Amino acid sequence: MLMPLSDDDRHLLEPAYVTWVLLLLNIAVFLVQLNNPEFTLGYAAIPAEITTGRDLVGAVEIQATPTKTESFTHVAGPRPIQLTLLSAMFMHAGIAHLAGNLLFLWIFGDNIEHRFGHLPYLLFYLASGLVASIAHIAMDPNSVIPSLGASGAIAGILGAYLILFPRNRVYAILMVWIVTLPAFAVIAMWAISQFIGGYQALLGNQEAGGIAYAAHIGGFITGASVALVFRLSWRAEPSSVLQRHYATDPTSRRLW
After folding, report:
1. Cβ atoms within 10 A of the Cβ of 165, count?
2. From CA 149, how far away is CA 85, in angstroms rounded?
3. Which pLDDT tens digit goes with each residue over 87-146?
4. What is the pLDDT of the chain when averaged over all its residues?
5. Please, what are the domains in the chain?
6. Measured CA distances, 30 to 72, 94, 115, 136 (Å)
7. Per-residue CA distances from 58 to 53, 75, 140, 144, 164 (Å)
8. Of 53, 85, 123, 228, which one's alpha carbon is 20 to 30 angstroms from that of 111?
9. Catalytic residue among 74, 128, 151, 240
10. For the chain, first and last CA: distance in Å?
């Protein structure tokens, strides 16, 4: 098992304000969820609600496994109900879900923010999350199972990081050892696991293991595609905190 711990951020000389705000917003929404469980059921994204535009309210029973059923109660959500595509991006199913997503956002988000700029980065984050949700819904548009989490948007960040910072060093735990690997190796391993999981999900249950692989894949492809377009269209290093650092320290190691 490979768990990233941090990347080499010695070249980042300014705070990543939008990443900080996203981290705090995810934590704040999770605290709201803990104090108001009905908020989760009302503001999570439910594929059947998105595709029909109808807010489902009442008890629902689903076949969780071939031998087990689960029931929960839908409560009223926002109007229009499609707003749950946005709210669900800041909600999480538990502390482990939240911690894992925020760790990846903390490690990889600041570099993408500095490369794109604050506002474009925010729009990129939201767009990646929306495309991820749409990809998940497309796999089973009639599903009544709530979907939530920032992982689709963060998958977009990973896709962009792979394109823009493939040689950046990432520190990670491998089994019991702390290792240093290039970003492309760490992110490629994560991406391969998602594609394998997604393929297996296609053979069985889309929510197998509670992981929306289609959302991760959709977000990742979106992020990589946007970053590739930007990288190919830049004729020179764009003005950013990274560019200013390169200008003041010509001995610094460029990351792409």
Report:
1. 24
2. 10
3. 999 999 889 999 999 999 999 999 999 889 899 999 999 999 999 999 999 988 888 888
4. 83
5. 2-248 (1.20.1540.10)
6. 19, 8, 29, 22
7. 16, 7, 20, 11, 46
8. 85
9. 151
10. 27
| 147 catalytic residue (yes or no) | no
Assign 16 to helix, strand or coil. coil
CA dihedral 25→27→32→34, nearest 10 degrees, is: 160
**Active-site pick, 92, 114, 136, 216:** 216
Alpha-carbon span 144 to 150, nearest angstrom: 19
Q: Is 174 a residue whose pLDDT tops 70?
A: yes
Between CA 208 and CA 112 the distance in angstroms is: 31
Residue carrying the six token digits 């939008």: 18
pLDDT digits (tens, 9 = 90+) for 31-45: 999 998 888 888 888
Q: Report d(CA 84, CA 80) in Å as an integer.
A: 8
Collapse the DSSP code of 78 into the 3-class scheme (helix H, G, I; strand E, B; otherwise coil) and give the result. coil
Rounded Cα gap, residues 169 and 185, in angstroms: 10
Q: Is 216 a catalytic residue?
A: yes
DSSP 8-state code for residue 251:
T
d(CA 161, CA 105): 11
For residues 157 and 116, the answer to whether their CB atoms sit within 8 Å is no
